[in-house]
Amino acid sequence: MSIATTPTIATATSMLMTTNEPVGAGALAEGEAAALYRLMTWLSPAFPVGGFSYSSGLEWAVEAGDITDAASLADWLDAMLGDGSGFCDATFLVHAHRATEAGETAALNEIAGLASAFVPSRERQLETTSQGRAFIDIARSAWNADGLDAMIAACSTPLVYPVAVGVVAAMHTVPLAPTLHAFLHALVSNWISAASRLIPLGQTDSQRVLARLEAAVAATADRALDAALDDLGSATFRADLASLRHETQYTRLFRS
């Protein structure tokens, strides 16, 4: 697969907006404004992919006493970002976006299959494939793109969520780096939202956790932009066990 040169997150923001200048009419080019608008819509909590009903195993971690407050939540999510599903999902998104952009359907099919195989539990499989399917269906209904149906049809397995985001963004020529950063922000925000319903975590503490993870999100995105598929791997065994044990948890608010 050909590898495109992609700027780091630190420099990529200039693709969508200028900084340290007053924002007025015409501050964003038409294409940049459309890309920003779509990213904000697609990765908003209001976009109906059902993310609110999943906790990625956090519900079991709370019941087991691994997560009890804002500090332990931030530590858990930091590990998931850098050493677990966050990094893996980010890397799959990067490779899916690049393969789609290059029109490499065979490569995209391989990426989609590998991404599906990386999911550690039945409930996480349900979570990511359901969200991927909903994301594609809704985005296609409201913002269809020429060639999107053919690109999706080239994949022999259902597209997991990060692959779906990468494919749709590439078909709409939304730049990779901002897409990746927005995806990771939405991922972390959903984790925090789930945790806020499980432990005593108010709105202010939720924002403190999000702020603490800002550097981790940027670092994970930058690693993913340079990562090969051979670099994929997870070391968050406790989080993987949490997603497995949630399947038999007696009382549950979430589907994963």
Secondary structure layout:
Layout: H1 9-12, H2 30-42, H3 58-63, H4 70-83, H5 85-101, H6 105-117, H7 122-142, H8 148-153, H9 161-171, H10 176-196, H11 203-212, H12 214-226, H13 237-245
Helix pairs in contact: 4-5, 4-11, 5-6, 5-9, 5-10, 5-12, 7-9, 9-10, 10-11, 10-12
Keywords:
single chain; 256 residues; mainly alpha; Urease accessory protein UreF; 13 helices; 0% strand; globular; disordered N terminus
Structural commentary:
- It contains 13 helices and no strands.
- It is mainly alpha-helical.
- The protein has one domain: Urease accessory protein UreF.
- The longest helix is centred in the middle third of the chain and has 21 residues.
- The chain is globular and about 50 Å long.
- The two termini are 34 Å apart.
Strand coverage percent = under 5%
Sequence of secondary-structure elements: HHHHHHHHHHHHH
CATH superfamily: Urease accessory protein UreF
CATH topology: Urease accessory protein UreF
The tally of domains stands at 1
Mean pLDDT over the full residue set:
89
Structural class: mainly alpha
The CATH class label is Mainly Alpha
Main sheet, how many strands, which sense, barrel?
Answer: none
How many extended strands? 0
* Principal-axis shape: globular
| Cα-to-Cα separation, first versus last residue | 34 Å
For the record, the CATH architecture stands as Orthogonal Bundle
Helical content (DSSP H or I, runs of 4+): 55-70%
Our count of helices gives 13
Poorly predicted runs are 1-15
Radius of gyration: 18 Å
